[in-house]
Design brief:
Layout: E1 5-10, E2 17-22, E3 27-32, E4 36-41, E5 49-53, E6 58-63, E7 68-73, E8 77-82, E9 89-94, E10 100-105, E11 111-116, E12 121-125, E13 130-135, E14 142-147, E15 153-158, E16 162-167, E17 173-178, E18 184-189, E19 195-200, E20 205-209, E21 214-219, E22 226-231, E23 237-242, E24 247-251, E25 256-262, E26 268-273, E27 279-284, E28 289-293, E29 331-334, E30 344-345, E31 348-350
Parallel strand pairs: 1-30, 5-31, 25-29
Antiparallel strand pairs: 1-28, 2-3, 3-4, 4-5, 6-7, 7-8, 8-9, 10-11, 11-12, 12-13, 14-15, 15-16, 16-17, 18-19, 19-20, 20-21, 22-23, 23-24, 24-25, 26-27, 27-28
Amino acid sequence: MSAPILLSHLKGNRNTITSIVFNDNDQFAASSLDKTIGIYSLKNKNARCLRFEMPFEVYDMDWSVKNIFAAVGNSKIANVCEAVLHKGYAEQIVAHQNSIRSVHFSTSGNRIITGSDDKSIKMFRLSHRNFIASFTGHTNWIHCARFSPNNKMIASCAEDKTMKVFDVQSGQLIHSFKDEKGYGNQLVWHKDNNTIAIAQENHRLKIYDLKQRKLIQYYRIYDCAVNALDFHPSGYFMLTGDNKGSTKILDLLEGRDIYTIYGHQDAVTAVRFSKDGEYFVTGSKDKHLMVFKSNIEAIDFNESTESSIEEIPHPDHADNKENQKDDKKSIVVDSRKSVHYNYLNNDSVNV
């Protein structure tokens, strides 16, 4: 496997990048605290960025299969918009009593969930524009809420230092994972509908098995908050961004980081693989986006519903001080040395 290669270095935003999402393998969208959402062409470098103005600082966004995107932020409303030039808002949903930090579409795009500082998660049906259910139990601000890939469950993390998993049909709490030391900034489901990874503000990344209801991998390779994460489509690798500006690629079968990528001048606040895993994009507090070719070799997909991630012994055990093998150090990739690093692109069209 070759090291990741920087393909594009994009600027144009005036504040922190907060989320990145792919619609397909040719386009991705990025939200920002500058109250905009930009839509970029991954493969057509000459295409202009479409920039949509939002009425609030955008904390999170998602993009459905129906070419509709939803944005939330320091507002009680969720904006649901059509990702087409010269189109207006499709819908404004009054969703919560406080700022909304998280938004996510179901796989079909018919439902949407939002997580808020009012400590609740709410679900709406877009086809009828109606409220469906609330999911409660958190006692502090919710940072992230996500449907499982099969849409049967919702996982959420909050500043109450818990990660909760709810049953969509009944609304009941399935399980609550408690962490005494820190809260989650973001979480992501594995494609097996059983494994959940969480990026924590106390310098940790943890992976839980829902069926066994226990921690199966625990990474202490960071010396700052972990802000963002994403599973590779194969399920065997993970992409993370941290508060000191580095991006890491983890090999989940070996339980170690294989690449540490530098280039951003501030915290990496958003990361995302393309849907085929061939590319990934990172966004930062430095207001810039970077597009990389991942160079992760294709691996045969495990069609089993069982988790493909092996359990790594807990690093706090005396006989296993680290979950990273001493003879296999992370390879450092300095994208600032790339010929593409200094060619910044800020060409955009406001919508």
